[in-house]
Amino acid sequence: MFIDKLIESIKEKNNPTVVGLDPKIEYVPSFIKEKAFKEFGVTLKGAAQAIIQFNKQLVDAVYDQVPAVKPQLAYYEMYGIEGMIAFDETCRYARGKGLLVIADGKRNDIGTTAEAYSRAFLGETVLADGIKQKAFDADALTVSPYLGIDGIKPFIDDCDKHEKGIFVLVKTSNKSSGQLQDLVTQDCRSIYEIMASYVNEWGKNVRGQYGYSSVGAVVGATYPNQAKLLRSIMKHAYILVPGYGAQGGTARDCVNNFNSDGLGAIVNASRSIMCAYMSDNWKNLYSEDKFAEAARAEVIRMKEDLNSALAGYR
Amino acid sequence: MFIDKLIESIKEKNNPTVVGLDPKIEYVPSFIKEKAFKEFGVTLKGAAQAIIQFNKQLVDAVYDQVPAVKPQLAYYEMYGIEGMIAFDETCRYARGKGLLVIADGKRNDIGTTAEAYSRAFLGETVLADGIKQKAFDADALTVSPYLGIDGIKPFIDDCDKHEKGIFVLVKTSNKSSGQLQDLVTQDCRSIYEIMASYVNEWGKNVRGQYGYSSVGAVVGATYPNQAKLLRSIMKHAYILVPGYGAQGGTARDCVNNFNSDGLGAIVNASRSIMCAYMSDNWKNLYSEDKFAEAARAEVIRMKEDLNSALAGYR
């Protein structure tokens, strides 16, 4: 089961962190960009090739410290076909290093279309009678719940069949998330609470040996009070927590997403790790060509930050 | 402006129809599949190449009859990188024939990530100082509103800058759409009504000469009563209506999405057109090798069906 693999890796590495791989070309160190642009031109291909180099070196620097990476599909689609090649190669490389890959695509559609998305990222594509092939190969995918269970069930079926996972948006980290998610219905529950109940229910058939389900949820680090309530509603959901670091969420803000056993959540950081070499914390210690070492240092700092906040909480 | 181009093309062709290009490999006639599989193997590439041939012949058969096509991204991602190449080639080919392309991706994310999606499909990707390139090139994109305006604004900015459009999910055609969308808030409005108000408001700066906005909405043909209300709330939104044909929506069900001038909505059909050659209506008249003619016949039948329902309504 995906969720058991995730938990075992979190325990082994003593680190509930996922590294977001959101490679805007601006984040890539100049020496990598210049080499790729020289070889492939200042083109989508040049950018995508630079991103592949950047991602591989980041993965090399952190794979023994973190259980998972989370490539954000938008930052690969932005570079067209070449970007999707970079996405594919990043997934393969990370999985080859023993990392779980959470594709952040927030996919959503209905019936056979949701099934197609699920096959694209989690399952297998049928080409002809008895002939199947994997399109992309992630371990988990983020999905958006606006369409209800019709848009979620095909993914859950593949979670069951192929040991994969999903994380359903519940309460997102952005400022305007309340425009829809905080609306209060006539039974006095907010939309995010109702979505949380659905998520807990939807995941009941794919629970693993630790009591958690391969159907997880997304709850932003920027809403710690809501996290407390959501943690209690979604007893069996693992929570993916974006918003730590660059978006303003602190380790203390994240702890409400965890249970008292230190499990139940995994915290994402993207920019603060990828761009550690540019940050006030690390730029004096690591020059641009040492960007991967800076990323590793930030991963270790974040692990300690989270673990000490969790220790204080228990 | 995207919306003016759409309306002018609808008027010119006297047809408020969009042809969905959702090319599951099962839909592709055997003679096309066999040729492609022979050349490229029974592989993702073979499937994707078959899909390109299928789509191009469909486009050739209908481009003078319809204003737009709507490739559904899930059915391209399902074939991996090769599928994305098929998506890209389909978009280019259709635009070359004067069709507007609505990429159905239901994309959604926050801030700079929504910006990345927008650049991927509607805008341009910055590669270096002053050097930009288009990643994919659609005229419009469907988007999902779970994250609020933070997830929508970057797309609207590109609508304004690049003459593009978006269609925001409001009330989707599937059975379980009510799980979230029909919830009623404490001010006695349903979520889909509230979303509709947002959509009307969000689109106010990109209205064209006919009074409609390049920020449109998605309202399923399967909910005609809700459509009547939504039409009145979203005075300036063009409505993309899925669910006609294979999903059970009739022309009469669609008319509530239109205004009395015959404008205000565009109705999608995918399977009933792509697979017309297999349908009870057409299979006795058109053999498999005449699939494109069957699609054209169904497009013309649908146009007449919609126009006569609209005439009865006015």
UniProtKB/TrEMBL annotation, chains A, B:
SMART domains in the cross-refs: OMPdecase
Keywords: Decarboxylase, Lyase, Pyrimidine biosynthesis
Residue ranges of every copy of the Orotidine 5'-phosphate decarboxylase domain listed in the record: 16-297
One Pfam assignment: OMPdecase
GO MF terms, alphabetically ordered: orotidine-5'-phosphate decarboxylase activity
Pathway membership: Pyrimidine metabolism; UMP biosynthesis via de novo pathway; UMP from orotate: step 2/2
Biological process terms in GO annotation: 'de novo' pyrimidine nucleobase biosynthetic process; 'de novo' UMP biosynthetic process
Catalytic activities: orotidine 5'-phosphate + H(+) = UMP + CO2
EC numbers: 4.1.1.23
Active site: 106 (proton donor)
Coiled-coil spans in chain: none
Keyword Lyase: yes
Gene3D superfamilies the UniProt entry points to: Aldolase class I
Family named by the database record: Belongs to the OMP decarboxylase family. Type 2 subfamily.
Listed NCBIfam families: pyrF_sub2
PANTHER family to which the protein is assigned, alphabetical: OROTIDINE 5'-PHOSPHATE DECARBOXYLASE
HAMAP family: OMPdecase_type2
Record's protein name: Orotidine 5'-phosphate decarboxylase
